[in-house]
Design goal:
It is a multi-pass membrane protein. This protein is 69% helix and 1% strand. The chain has 434 residues and is mainly α. The protein has one domain (2-429). Strands 1-2 form a two-stranded antiparallel ribbon.
Amino acid sequence: MSSLSIAEPAARAPDAEAMRFLAMVPLLVYAVLGQLDAVGNRLSAHLPIGTTELTLAALLGATLLVCLLPEGPQRRVRGATGVRLIAMLFWWAVFSWTLSRHKDAGLSYLIQLGIAILPGLCTLIIVDRPGRLRLMLWAIIGAGTVSAVIVLIETRTGGRIVSTSIAATTAGFEGVARSAGGSDENPSTAAQMLLISVALALGLLFAGERRFRLPLLGFVAIGAAALVLGGARSAVLGLGAALALIVWRFRHRPFFPLLIVGGIVALIAAIPFLPPTLLDRFAAIGNFAQDQTLFRRITYLRIGADLIEHSPIWGVGPGNFPLYYVTDAYRWMPGREPFPRELHNTYLDAATEYGLVGFLIFAALLAYALLSATRATSALDPMLAACGYALSIALAALLVGCFFMPHKDLRYLWLLLALAIQAGRLRAAEGTSP
């Protein structure tokens, strides 16, 4: 009996491995549908439950089974700092919600935030090998390829292929419609997700990816063109940050000064070929009469700063800013609209709704994820090192875009954070694996 009881966990270890392998399927589907949610909405239009909900249910169920089944110690990836920071942030948001004025809106937001965080936690359990980490990156890149192609087609034809939501189909600038690609999010948010795909492809390409160099080059070209045609200034700035970080990698090479000069010349030469809408949007940054949204963005910041002053420790509560935005106290601010709006700066938004304590936890989580991805670039496994570099580039690019967008509950943000943290955990596990 004793010999059987000792052998049983070892015999059942392959069961956990097989379940972890199967759990990769809904996780990959989630990574794809995160950017192609409009496709998922079309598929589930006549079903009582959406494809996203089905995917999440399958993912959580499979992850629970992985946790319940015994496995060999060699498969465990240790390091819980990232998990603790995620848990601390969520529970602080719950605490902040208990002190908020608009609890119904806050509860809806907490549910949305929890739905965004849970797949990231599942990622930390399921993605236990560099090969699976790389597969996740390729899933995001593949989804971005499809979305970029849709942007190019819709920009050319003026129609809509899969998007159906009002946010995705009515957005425009100076009478020119903007495409959200394969998403039902607004075009700016869709462009941020596409930015992650392009930055990941750039990172893999410059990390030494040889086998799929041509497909990566093709997607970078298509994705960059789609970002430019999409007209999202925040995404274009994020792409610029990704390119700047890649160029900085060659700072010790003799040709680095020529690289800088060549980049500047190429940028100037490309200006005549850029879409007029994009040029107008950047030119409008100094012309409030041309772009009325600039008044609104300044008002976001002023209202946020005022709310922090009144509740600096725990903030106004998650999901509460839009309801404060429409109060009479701010009705005369320039550009303010009569319906709720989110604060379009992720960092100030976190400080406003979570307070300074919540903001510090959020900032620590972002810094830890970026540091984890950076550490993974020195991994002994070339595949893990390449994934770490790609994740560090993509996360840095998204963090730049977060200065202009409300991304605290963006699903791709939490998925990217989890992948970056897991890359660092896999790097740390290299020295402890038998």
